[in-house]
Amino acid sequence: MDYFTIRALRENHAGWSLLCAQTAPLALTFLMAAFTEPNRRNLGRQELIDTLEDVLFRVRESTGDAAFPRPAAQYLDEWANPEKAWLRKYYAEGRDEPVYDLTASTEDVVRWVESLQGREFVATQSRLSGIFALLKSLVQGSETDPEVRLAELHAERDRIDAEIERVARGEVRVMGSPEARDHFQQLTDQAKELLSDFREVEQNFRALDRQVRERIATWEGTQGELLEDIFANRRDIAGSLQGRTFQGLWDYLMSPTQRAELVDLLERASRIDALRDAPGLDGLQAMHQDWLPALEETQATVRRLSQQLRRLLDDKVFLENRRIIALIRSIEGHALALRASPLRDTLTEMPAQHVDVGLPFERPLYSPTGRIAIDDAVEIADDAGLDAEALFGQFSVDRERLRGQIDAVLESADQATLADVVDAHPIEQGLAEIVAYFQLASESPWATTDTGHEQRLVYTLPDGEQREAFVERIIFVRPS
User: Fold this and answer.
1) Read out DSSP for 194-214?
2) How far is CA 82 from CA 78, 103, 291, in A?
3) Are the C-beta atoms of 472 and 457 separated by less than 8 Å?
4) Is residue 466 helix, strand or coil?
5) What are the tens digits of pLDDT across the range 388-398?
6) Distance (Å, rounded) from C-alpha 370 to C-alpha 86?
7) Which pLDDT score, from 0 to 100, does residue 27 have?
8) 53 C-beta neighbours (distance < 10 Å), count
9) Are the CB atoms for 177 and 274 separated by under 8 Å?
């Protein structure tokens, strides 16, 4: 990195702006309390406001109200503003309020500030062991000479055989407490880094997809070329280094055998005597349970991106159809103009070139028609015991009466639900009257149907039997 790159980062990077902000101590305290310490993500607005109110209350007790005088909601909106981008604000499916999550750059800053406190125990031996293991895996996995690969495998087999012989003689080597704590701290650090990587992976997927959607919005070619370009870019996203490594991680954790092995190893690690007093040991068995929701959220982001691409493509097809219709109408208009023009006699009609060819062998062979047997026997049902009164007992619902009942209720209120109308004017014609109310609501611009909530309607049949119905809530609003 050169001087100009670093200066551009200082001016534009969201993490750098967070460190330089006057409210950085408050923001970092809140972000740690809400997201990183409980290891949570995708939190609702009201829950975050409550958490920030608690943080502000504790801070104001020591510094006074003048330090941070604004309410919690204003600070939250400021930090989620695209100009700062410390938080990502979006609307999730099935939720009425906005949802917030840390951005990748903000989480990097939070993790870095947490590391400034220092550590009582620094893992060095396990890091060196990990470097050797990664280097060995890299070299052996990239070796193309069969003889070298066989020699390495034979050497590994000899080491395993020697270890088996030592264990058979009772010489079992067990990790000491310092070595075990060294490996355990390295394990927990890498697990936290993996969780923080998921947000960056998700952000990279969104950036790749944004490029595709920008190409769709500015596309000037044909629809076929657009489809080919979209599918090529989707393959680029799935085939990128980010896509391949994430898919490999997903396949690994979704494998029942490998998940069972991971759970068994975590359970056995939690029972190691040398780690009995190690901090964080209680959450070791649930480590993989923190990964799965984050993985599923990233996979859901990929699914949502695919749906967005399909909608954008549908919009493009709609605009293309509108353009075709406009061209057809333009041709029709020119044709009508030429019909009224005095130059129409100078036009010449030319038949299209075609030849009607009928080959003898194209004629089908004669196929005799078969006779269809029809069973004309009619069975007369015994309907002597049927009650035909229901055929003559039909009725209709007076929609104008229902509309008048709604207007009567809205005379004393700005809005009312269907349950309010039914309470004031009980249902007389059963379920048919409820259906008529729904039809009125669908046709009226002053009524909405809230599909997320239900309401209970109670009515009495003409024979005195009481019924109840659970329907979607309808809200009628007085016309302005």
Assistant:
1) HHHHHHHHHHHHHHHHHHHHH
2) 9, 11, 28
3) no
4) strand
5) 666 666 668 88
6) 80
7) 92
8) 13
9) yes
